[in-house]
Each structure stands twice: as C-alpha cells, then as structure tokens.
Amino acid sequence: MDEKILNQLSIELGKRLKQKKLSVTCAESCTGGWIAKVITDIAGSSAYFNRGFVTYSNDAKHEMLGVSLVSLTQFGAVSEQIVKEMAEGALKVAEANFSVAVSGIAGPDGGSEEKPVGTVWFGFAFQVEADIQTVTYRQHFSGNRDAVRLQSVIFSLKILLEEIIKN
User: Fold this and answer.
1) Distance in angstroms (rounded) separating the CA atoms of residues 44 and 66
2) What local confidence, expressed as pLDDT, does residue 102 receive?
C-alpha cells in the first residue's frame, strides 16, 4: 500500500512540475536518498529532477550545501535552522525551483528528551523572483526506523505538492 501511495504522489509531483516547467531537488539526511529515489522512479523525471544530495554527516551538510558549522554546533543537525540552510543550499547548488530538506532521528538510537526518536525537521525552499522563501515543519512520527523514514518521505512529497500548487 505504501509503495502505491509513494508512486501516486511521485506521479502527481512530476505532472505538476512538468506543467509549470519547474524543477525540484532534495537534501536528505535521515531518509538517505529515498525521496530522490521515488521521484526518479517515474519515467521522464529527468525533465524536472537534475540532482539530489544525501548529506548524512555534518561534514557533508557543510561541504555540499554550505550549512554553517556554527549552526551545526549551536542547533544540532536535527533542527529548524539546519533544514532551512540545507533546503536553501540545495536550491542554490542544484539551481532548482523547489527543494526539500530532511533531518531527523529515525532510531532506534540517537534520541534524547529534547529530540526523541521519531523527531524529523523538514525545510522547503522555493525561488520567488530574486528571493528564496523557506518554510519549515517539525513532525514526530511513530514506529520503527523504516516507518519513521517512510512517513518522512510521504510528508515531504505531500508538502512539495502543496507548495507547487500554491506557487
């Protein structure tokens, strides 16, 4: 059932992007490239997807997307500030119209009282004329590692669709 949902969301996302002649990129940490995978599962996705970034480590976030080392130290990788910087960095590097960034704690380890397992931050950036606008969300998903990651991918695709329809 989940594969069907992912496929439907990916098809709809591609259709909207093609109609508007727009492109999307992703900067993924806890989802490990799953968002890019489902987007590119759709034949013809090269028309709207050029590249994505799997930035699992802090070094990768900094080196590939320009995330500030100060921000990483101050806020931690799983934070609003970091997904905002990831989304904006991916948008610039990929020269895309839309981006999604995901950083979270999928478990089973790594959680804390402040950031329990299942905590996931999302950043969505989009180009509006000469400016970049970014929106962020914090979600808490339940279940095992795969369940948290799957819910993160579904959430990402749904919000991307909403943002593309709005803009």
Assistant:
1) 30
2) 98
Q: Which residues neighbour 67 within 8 Å (Cβ) at sequence distance 6 or greater?
A: 55, 58, 61, 82, 85, 86, 89
**Residue appearing with tokens 């990916």:** 10
Pairwise CA distance, residues 120 & 151, whole Å: 10
69 in Cβ contact with 62 (< 8 Å):
yes
Q: What is the pLDDT of residues 89-126, one digit of tens each?
A: 999 999 999 999 999 999 999 888 889 999 999 999 99
Q: Does the global pTM surpass 0.70?
A: yes
Q: How far is CA 47 from the centre of its chain?
A: 19
Cα–Cα distance between 35 and 19 in angstroms, integer?
A: 21
Q: 78-94: per-residue pLDDT in tens?
A: 999 999 999 999 999 99
Q: Is 46 exposed, middle or buried (0-12, 13-18, 19+ CB in 10 A)?
A: exposed
Helix axes 80-94, 58-65, angle to 10 degrees: 40
Contacts (Cβ under 8 Å, ≥6 apart) of 79: 71, 103, 121
Report the pLDDT value the prediction gives residue 19, as an integer from 0 to 100.
96
Residues 35, 15: Cα–Cα separation, whole Å:
16
Helix (H) or strand (E) holding 131: strand 131-140
